[in-house]
């Protein structure tokens, strides 16, 4: 009794039932899923790298001499910058930065020709950009 030989090379190795139709060897659906996953993974890696660069800069001081002064200073900084609401674990500093800049654009529109206020606004915009990106790689 002859059966049709199975040709696995023609079936997508990811889903196992659709035909391979892309150059990378997957079906269209699995290929685009993989591309999205890969992009998400890259994004996550970038976010983690950014986070660890910040962490290196803001590491809690140990019990070295001057540690008390540094701890007090750090505490003041933390209190001064503590948000009403902490962002979610998956939030993206770049997206938060874009939102903040949009709010500042609205403020700019209300400032008229107050050049001193505009100068402060420009500095705030720059600092938000720095916060969003963190230290340079
Ligand atoms: Zn597939």
Low-confidence stretches: none
Whole-number count of domains:
2
Q: Please give the alpha-carbon distance between the first and last residues.
A: 65 Å
Distinct ligand kinds = zinc ion
Number of helices: 4
Largest sheet: none
* Average of per-residue pLDDT values: 84
In total, the number of strands is 0
Which percent bin holds the helix content? 55-70%
Helix/strand-derived category reads mainly alpha
Beta-strand residue percentage: under 5%
**Rg over CA atoms:** 25 Å
Order of helices and strands: HHHH
The shape, in one word, is flat
Quick recap:
The protein contains four helices and no strands. The protein has helices at 28-57, 67-81, 93-111, 115-133.
Structure description:
This protein has 137 residues and is mostly helical. The protein has two domains: 9-82, no CATH class; 91-137. It has four helices and no strands. The chain has helices spanning 28-57, 67-81, 93-111, 115-133. Helix 3 (93-111) runs antiparallel to helix 4 (115-133). The longest helix is centred in the N-terminal third of the chain and has 30 residues, at 28-57. It is flat. The N and C termini lie far apart (65 Å). The mean pLDDT is 84. Residues 12, 14-15, 18, 26-27, 29-30 line the site of zinc ion.
């Amino acid at each position: 009794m002859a059966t049709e030989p199975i040709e696995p090379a023609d079936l997508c190795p990811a889903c196992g039932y659709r035909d391979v139709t892309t150059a990378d060897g997957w079906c269209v659906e699995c290929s685009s899923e993989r591309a999205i996953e890969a992009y998400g993974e890259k994004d996550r890696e970038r976010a983690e790298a950014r986070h660890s660069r910040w962490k290196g800069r803001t590491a809690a001081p140990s019990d070295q001499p001057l540690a008390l002064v540094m701890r007090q200073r750090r505490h003041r900084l933390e209190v001064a910058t503590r948000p009403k609401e902490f962002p979610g674990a998956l939030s993206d500093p770049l997206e938060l930065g874009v939102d903040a800049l949009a709010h500042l654009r609205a403020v700019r529109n209300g400032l008229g020709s107050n050049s001193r206020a505009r100068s402060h606004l420009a500095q705030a915009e720059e600092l938000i950009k720095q916060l969003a990106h963190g230290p340079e790689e």
